[in-house]
Design goal:
By secondary structure, the chain is of the alpha+beta class. It contains 15 helices and 13 strands. A four-stranded mixed beta sheet has the order 1-7-4-2, with helices on one face. α4 packs across α6, α7 crosses α10 and α10 packs across α11. The longest helix has 36 residues. The chain is globular, with a radius of gyration of 22 Å. The chain starts with a strand and ends with a strand. The model has no long low-confidence stretch (mean pLDDT 94). The chain binds protoporphyrin IX containing FE. Protoporphyrin IX containing FE binds next to α6, α10 and α14.
Length: 403
């Protein structure tokens, strides 16, 4: 395995057609065969073009309004009922984040029945087990058992959510074809899109694989990144108390989210294999066909040449690297994160010709929690996971003092 930490070389490999994906072959072939992240070349670009419709700016605003804000409001109502005698709520940010992180992906994918607390909890349990099995190479422990649990979770997700969601959309599409319904009655989500665009050689198994991949790629990353962001930002605030009023300023929070993502990796290392001999222009490295590469994003995201002399530190006020403040957090090239703007938001023209920002999921979650007086609970230490090579919290006790 060749280990690469130079950002220019990583980017060149990610963008080059001389390299293919080789992440956890066992997990991919058993759980998500044929999903977007496992494809390369023409097949990948054709599928990606179809699915990019899900990420148009109007759709992202829709997911935020129709899925994220109502879920957030329901969760805050439930938390309010947990106030102790002094008006403080004690809760764990990790399960709370998992619940919130699934709101947009479930609607975007077209999974019915996950809107309430019970449905969300069941869906996220399945997604966790599926994700562990798909990324088996990064898991600690008995791999056969992890795969078995993943396959069981896939069957349960199919039984409890997927089959009925597909059936409802198939019926709606049939009614549209028969002229009994308007096309606008069909939800504009991943399942509907694939039902309408499947090639003859693709089947329901492909839709299941794609749905699972989208759910895990979006939920596990957001749920993993958010607690780290909160810890980094509140640590920084302890040394910069004059900025505390900014905790309820969405522009500031979005900048802090972007900066924190520089330190976060969606996978410990990205793996690629050369499919032909080639020469890397960025470093002059000669590569032979079959060579395997581990691409380490965190050191690449710490380069002082891009992010300034204090690149190793979290600094939400950073001016260096503003054109891509998250560095390589969302990858680069054909497989780069299709859902990035769900997290980073995007600038938008306003009716009066000005510009405004549509904020991402992590910013919206943080804003609501900071408005509710979020602090890390000084009496209950956080815990990091030991069951995987991912850098993840399993528990982050917090208090809400202003709910
Ligand atoms: C903090 C949040 C997130 C991070 C850090 C992240 C990171 C990444 C990275 C690094 C890749 C590239 C993988 C590679 O090149 O091997 C990727 C791909 C992907 N991401 Fe994200 N992601 C996040 C959130 C999301 C969300 C919210 C969605 C969907 C709603 C999403 C959907 C996907 C999909 C479908 C792919 C595969 C794209 C392809 O293979 O063409 N991600 N993500």
């Amino acid at each position: 395995m060749v280990h690469v930490t130079d950002s220019a070389e990583i980017e060149e490999i990610l963008k080059s057609s001389s390299f293919i994906q080789v992440a956890s072959r066992v997990g991919h072939s058993q759980l998500i065969p044929g999903a977007l992240s496992t494809l390369d070349g023409l097949e990948h670009s054709q599928r990606r073009r179809i699915e990019s419709k899900l990420f148009r700016p109007d759709r992202i605003e829709y997911y935020r309004q129709a899925a994220l804000l109502p879920s957030m409001a329901a969760a805050m109502d439930e938390l309010r009922s947990l106030k102790d005698a002094s008006g403080v709520v004690r809760t764990d940010l990790v399960p709370l984040t998992w619940r919130m992180a699934q709101a947009i992906p479930a609607v975007l994918a077209g999974i019915d029945g996950a809107g309430d607390a019970a449905g969300a909890a069941t869906l996220t349990t399945y997604v966790k087990d599926i994700a562990a099995a798909v990324t088996i190479g990064w898991q600690v422990g008995d791999h056969e058992e992890i795969l078995r649990r993943g396959l069981e979770a896939r069957a349960a997700l199919r039984r409890d959510f997927f089959d009925s969601s597909v059936a409802r959309r198939r019926n709606l599409l049939a009614e549209v074809r028969a002229g009994r319904r308007a096309a606008g009655d069909v939800p504009r989500d991943l399942i509907s899109l694939l039902l309408q665009n499947l090639r003859p050689d693709e089947d329901a198994g492909t839709i299941l694989a794609e749905t699972m991949m989208f759910l895990m790629a979006s939920i596990t990353t957001t749920a993993g990144a958010f607690p780290h962001f909160i810890v980094r930002l509140l640590d920084w605030m302890a040394d910069h108390p004059e900025y505390r009023p900014e905790l309820v300023n969405q522009d500031f929070i979005q900048r802090a989210v972007n900066e924190s993502l520089r330190f976060f990796v969606a996978s410990p290392a990205r793996l690629r294999e050369a499919r032909e001999d080639c020469l890397l222009a960025s470093t002059g490295r000669r590569v032979t066909a079959g060579a395997k590469f581990a691409l380490w994003f965190v050191p690449a995201n710490m380069e002082a040449a891009t992010f300034g002399p204090d690149a190793l530190e979290f600094n939400p006020l950073r001016e260096d690297g503003r054109n891509r403040p998250w560095g390589l957090a969302f990858g680069a090239g054909p497989h780069s994160c299709i859902g990035r703007t769900v997290i980073t938001g995007f600038p938008r023209r306003t009716a009066d010709g000005g510009s405004a920002h549509v904020y991402g999921t992590m910013t919206t979650l943080a804003l609501h929690l900071f408005e509710a007086g979020l602090e890390i609970d000084p009496d209950s230490p956080p815990r990091l996971t030991s069951s995987t090579f991912y850098d993840e919290y399993v528990s982050l006790p917090v208090t809400l003092t202003a709910l």
